Amino acid sequence: MKKIKIISQSIEKDKSIINLLKKLEIKIGDNKFILNDNWKGDLCSIGISDLNENKLIYISTFGKEEGIYHVELENINIDKSGKFKTVEKHQNVNFEKLEKLLKNHLEV
After folding, report:
1. Helix or strand or coil: residue 14?
2. Residue 23 in 3-state DSSP?
3. Model confidence over 2-56: pLDDT tens digits?
4. What is the per-residue DSSP string for 26-95?
5. How buried is residue 19: exposed, middle or buried, by Cβ count under 10 Å (0-12/13-18/19+)?
6. Which residues, at least 6 apart from 21, have a Cβ–Cβ distance to it below 8 Å?
7. Positive or negative: CA dihedral 71, 76, 79, 81
8. What is the pLDDT of residue 76?
9. CA–CA separation, 29 vs 25, rounded Å?
10. For strand 2-3 and strand 34-35, is the pairing parallel, antiparallel, or unpaired?
11. What is the model's pTM?
């Protein structure tokens, strides 16, 4: 995985994900989290993890209005050798709520 620098990085995702990542980079910084894209074939989703890759936030824009997100908070499942388990799900989250969830969950 790699730390992200979205504005200067080209990734193949839907415009809604690119715009979200740019907003997060501006609001939080580009060195506070890692882009963890386990869903390369899904252009409307992305994963963002903490710098230790112990926590992940899954974000999807599929079927959502602009600026609305499906969010899942996940923690590493030590028993499953690096797999993550969902600990919370949030439907129809706006950017402000998503930013708060990300900051709290990833502790940034």
Report:
1. coil
2. helix
3. 444 444 356 789 999 999 999 999 999 878 888 888 888 899 999 999 999 899 9
4. HHH-SSS-EE--S-TT-TTEEEEE-TTSSEEEEEE-TT--TTEEEEEEEEEEGGGTTEEEEEEEEEEEEH
5. middle
6. 4, 6, 11, 13, 35, 46
7. positive
8. 87
9. 5
10. antiparallel
11. 0.87
- In the predicted model, what is the mean pLDDT of residues 47-72? 95
Contact of 45 with 17, CB cutoff 8 Å: yes
| Residue 39 structure tokens | 């869903």
**64 residue type, one letter:** K
pLDDT 10s digits, 73-82:
999 887 766 6
